[in-house]
Amino acid sequence: MSRPQTSEGQIGSLAVSALMVLAGVVTLWDTQGYADRDSQVFPQTVAILLIITALGSLVWRLLHPSDNGGFGAGIWWRRLLLVAALFACALTMPSIGFLASGAIAFAGGLVAAMHDRWDARTALIFGLSGAVVMGAFYALFKFVLMVPLP
User: Fold this and answer.
1) CA pair distance 38, 21, nearest whole angstrom
2) Model-level pTM?
3) pLDDT tens digits for 18-44?
C-alpha cells in the first residue's frame, strides 16, 4: 500500500484548489446583491465554472497524489510582471477605458511570456495581432453582447 505524499507541491495544489472553490462561492454569494439580473449572469457563470474546475482539481489531486507541483523552476520576474500587468489593467480600466487597459495587460503578458529574442518584425506582428484581438473583444462586448464598457 502506497503512502500518500505530502510534498510542498501536493499541499500547495490542494490549498490553491480549496482557495479557488472559496473564491467561487464568495463570488456567487456576492452576485445575489446585484439589482439587475442581467449583470449577474457573467460573474455567476464564471464562478460556477471556477468551482467545478477547482473541485475537479482538488479531487484529482487527492486521488492521485504527486510530488510534482508548485511553482517549479522559472524566472520570478516574469510571474510578477504578469500579475502586475493584470492588476494594472483592472485598476486603470475605469479611468483610461477597456482598450487602453487591455493593451497594458496584453503587453505585460506578452513580455512575460516571450522567451525568444525580440526583433522589429516580431514586435510588429505581435502588436498588430494584439490590436486585432482586443478590437474583436471590444466589438463583441460592446456591440454583440451590449455590455457597457468604460
Assistant:
1) 24
2) 0.63
3) 999 999 999 999 999 888 887 788 899
